[in-house]
Each structure stands twice: as structure tokens, then as C-alpha cells.
From TrEMBL:
The lineage of its organism: Bacteria, Pseudomonadati, Pseudomonadota, Gammaproteobacteria, Oceanospirillales. SUPFAM superfamilies: AhpD-like (SSF69118). It comes from the Bacteria. GO terms for molecular function: peroxiredoxin activity. It comes from Terasakiispira papahanaumokuakeensis. This is 4-carboxymuconolactone decarboxylase. InterPro entries: 4CMD/NDH-1_regulator, AhpD-like, CMD-like. Pfam families: CMD (PF02627). Residues 13-96 form the Carboxymuconolactone decarboxylase-like domain.
Length: 115
């Protein structure tokens, strides 16, 4: 995965530093919630707010925290009823390029649940 420094460092070194040191270095490391829980919460918030630009990064991060493609699919489907069908459809569109390679490695049954 790319670092905040790689993405934002040239245009905003301070934002990159805050992202790495405060957001991921402190907030994400607090013990009350697991990294898996934080990933699910973050994906849910991004889907509900329609912030699809950040979803590919957080889909990959969720995978590293133990969330599989079927669970992400179930999360987005559940959110469709609370955040709206268009928000969920956009989230699935953002999921395809990221999860495609993962889904290709799974069984055909699981691949169908990917998208």
C-alpha cells in the first residue's frame, strides 16, 4: 500500500504527516476497537457519505485487517437500506478493481458473491 507521504507529501507535507502520525499512528492504534472493527466502521462511513475516492485504499486495508470480500459485500448491501441504493452501487463500482484480483483467486461460488 502507498503511504500518505507518497500520496500527499509533495502537495501538503503537513497533511501527510498528520495522516501518518495522528490518524494512523494514534487514532487507529487506540485499543478500544480492533483494527478490523475500525476498517469496517471506516468503510461504512465512506460508503454512507459517498466518498468513493477513498474506498479502494480502505478496501485493501480492511483485507489486511481480516475482512474478506464477502463481508465487504454484505456490509455494502446492508448499507444500501440505510445510506441509499446509489451510495451502495457506487461503493460496489469502487470495489470491482480492488477486489477483482482477490475474487479471481477464490472459488466460483465466492467469486459470485464478490460482485
Amino acid at each position: 500500500m502507498v503511504s500518505a507521504q507518497q500520496v500527499f507529501g509533495e502537495i501538503s507535507p503537513q497533511f501527510a504527516r498528520l495522516t501518518e502520525e495522528v490518524l494512523f499512528g494514534d487514532v487507529w492504534q487506540q485499543g478500544e476497537l480492533s483494527l478490523r472493527d475500525r476498517s469496517l466502521i471506516t468503510v461504512a462511513a465512506l460508503v454512507a457519505l459517498g466518498r468513493t475516492g477513498q474506498l479502494p485504499f480502505h478496501y485493501q486495508l480492511a483485507q489486511t485487517h481480516g475482512v474478506d470480500s464477502a463481508q465487504l459485500s454484505a456490509l455494502i448491501t446492508h448499507l444500501a437500506f440505510y445510506a441509499g441504493w446509489p451510495a451502495a452501487a457506487s461503493a460496489f463500482e469502487a470495489m470491482q478493481p480492488v477486489m477483482g484480483s482477490v475474487c479471481d483467486d477464490e472459488s466460483k461460488e465466492e467469486t459470485a458473491s464478490c460482485l
